[in-house]
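Lecture notes, part 5. Sequence design as translation. It can be helpful to think of inverse folding as translation between two languages: the language of shapes and the language of residues. The source text, in structure tokens, appears below.
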């Protein structure tokens, strides 16, 4: 039995009940740690009028809706459809500007005319997008449903009537002709009665006297949208000359205030969720970096990604014409935890960030950095990054870390992802080893996915669940970082390097002292 397609209501959600969470929008606490706040600031830049951030703050909870979005994004990667959507967006933006201007105006006839023009733009925008999509081979369930909705809408009696009435009143207004007779301080307005246009005759008469460039004495009128009191008086008199037309305009303005279709207005805003992201990642793809549609599972925790990178860092590096280093990772079987060690400034934190980034981006239905990826649909992402001490809570740094990790473990489930960056750096090696082992044992018991960045190599050998990864250095020059993170047993030097850096005993530090 084939399931009948549901009526279209949203280009973001496949079912009406799926968007209920948007009513309770929040900014996830991990956005700052993963630099997702920077990513989404760039994604939405220039599109503030659409208020896209609520959509970016609500990850999806089911794979069907993620697939719904991925298919729509694939359709929008087609040049023709994207061009039509961008044209539709410009028209709808012009409509909103006209409506906003109408609300600002006080002179009734001017207000009503701006409203009429806004509805004319709306009718044109809807008619065009309906005609354009009708001839495109869209494959996503979302765009096929929207196309069907548009076809029904533009063929409805309501839209046809709106279109015809808008055109009729616009044509009648354009047909109005009148003359103004100014004698001293007296202004007389009357209907045009085929009087001669003397301006054309005067221009023709004096044209034969023109020799070379002449001074332009033409008067320029002000470009304000607001009318002066003289202009308003003139139009009040014009309205008396053509009462039927202006009464029809007033009636139109009163009756059609709520004529805009709410589903189409919603589509206009929601489709920017896709268009904004595609525009954002275009610069990365132009630089040779790859994006892919990840395979998402809510069962298997065997995750992998190849050629992936930190989107926020890459955004900065591209602007600086610097190289973006890509990395790979995978977990198989009972593996759940990446324990990452190695020298400072070697890319460990960057790895932790992009692991969280791509899982979150995938939960929105977006493409993710990389050539291929399989990811887990988690219920929540938790991060534990170093924070500055807060003198108001009277807690030391270690105590604060313990309180925060305790709260995380109380809330986390087996379907959560935890990212710990340089935990327990404020205590001794033995205490950090003990605390780190206790935390990782809790994570292993919960069967959670985790990235644990540490300077303690022993934490990478707690069992089958842990995988040791290291930031590697240049073999010929140990002071140079490659920013590559690879699966490799910890070599025992990470903590030594950390201590040497802390006390200024690294090769670079000693060399600087000797040469001074």
């Amino acid at each position: 039995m084939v399931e009948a397609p549901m009526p279209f209501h949203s280009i973001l959600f496949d079912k009406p009940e799926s968007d209920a969470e948007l009513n309770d929008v929040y900014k996830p606490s991990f956005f700052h740690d993963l630099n997702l706040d920077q990513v989404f600031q760039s994604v939405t830049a220039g599109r503030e009028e659409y208020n896209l951030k609520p959509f970016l703050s609500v990850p999806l909870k089911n794979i069907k809706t993620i697939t719904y979005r991925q298919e729509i994004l694939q359709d929008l990667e087609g040049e023709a459809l994207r061009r039509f959507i961008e044209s539709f967006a410009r028209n709808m933006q012009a409509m909103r500007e006209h409506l906003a201007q109408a609300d600002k105006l006080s002179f009734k006839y001017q207000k009503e005319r701006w409203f009429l023009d806004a509805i004319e733009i709306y009718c044109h925008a809807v008619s065009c997008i309906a005609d354009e999509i009708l001839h495109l081979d869209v494959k996503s369930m979302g765009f096929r449903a929207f196309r069907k909705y548009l076809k029904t809408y533009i063929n409805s009696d309501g839209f046809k009537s709106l279109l015809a009435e808008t055109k009729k009143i616009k044509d009648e207004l354009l047909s109005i002709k009148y003359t103004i007779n100014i004698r001293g301080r007296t202004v007389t307005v009357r209907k045009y009665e085929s009087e001669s246009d003397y301006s054309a005759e005067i221009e023709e008469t004096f044209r034969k006297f023109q020799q070379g460039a002449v001074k332009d004495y033409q008067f320029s009128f002000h470009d304000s949208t607001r009318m002066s009191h003289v202009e308003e008086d003139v139009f009040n008199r014009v309205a008396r000359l053509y009462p039927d037309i202006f009464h029809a305009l007033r009636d139109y303005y009163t009756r059609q205030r709520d004529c805009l279709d709410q589903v189409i207005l919603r589509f206009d805003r929601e489709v920017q969720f896709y268009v904004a992201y595609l525009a954002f990642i275009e610069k990365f793809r132009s630089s040779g970096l790859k994006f892919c549609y990840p395979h998402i599972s809510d069962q298997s925790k065997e995750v992998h990604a190849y050629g992936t990178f930190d989107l926020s860092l890459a955004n900065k590096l591209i602007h600086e014409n610097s190289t973006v280093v890509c990395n790979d990772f995978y977990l198989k079987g009972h593996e759940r935890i990446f324990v990452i060690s190695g020298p400072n400034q070697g890319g460990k934190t960057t790895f932790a960030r992009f692991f969280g980034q791509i899982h979150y981006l995938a939960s929105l239905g977006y493409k993710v950095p990389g050539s291929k990826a399989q990811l887990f649909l988690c219920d929540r992402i938790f991060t534990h990054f170093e924070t500055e001490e807060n003198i108001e809570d009277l807690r030391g740094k270690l105590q604060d870390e313990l309180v925060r990790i305790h709260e995380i473990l109380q809330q986390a489930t087996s379907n959560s992802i935890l990212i710990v960056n340089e935990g327990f750096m404020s205590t001794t090696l033995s205490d950090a080893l003990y605390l780190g082992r206790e935390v990782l044992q809790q994570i292993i018991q919960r069967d959670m996915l985790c990235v644990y960045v540490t300077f303690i190599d022993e934490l990478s050998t707690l069992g089958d669940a842990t995988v040791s990864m290291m930031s590697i250095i240049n073999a010929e020059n140990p002071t140079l970082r490659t920013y590559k993170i690879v699966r490799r047993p910890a070599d025992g030097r990470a903590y030594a390097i950390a201590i040497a850096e802390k006390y200024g005993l690294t090769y670079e530090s000693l060399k600087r002292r000797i040469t001074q």
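The translated text above is only one of many valid answers, since several sequences can fold into similar shapes. The first helix runs from residue 30 to 33.
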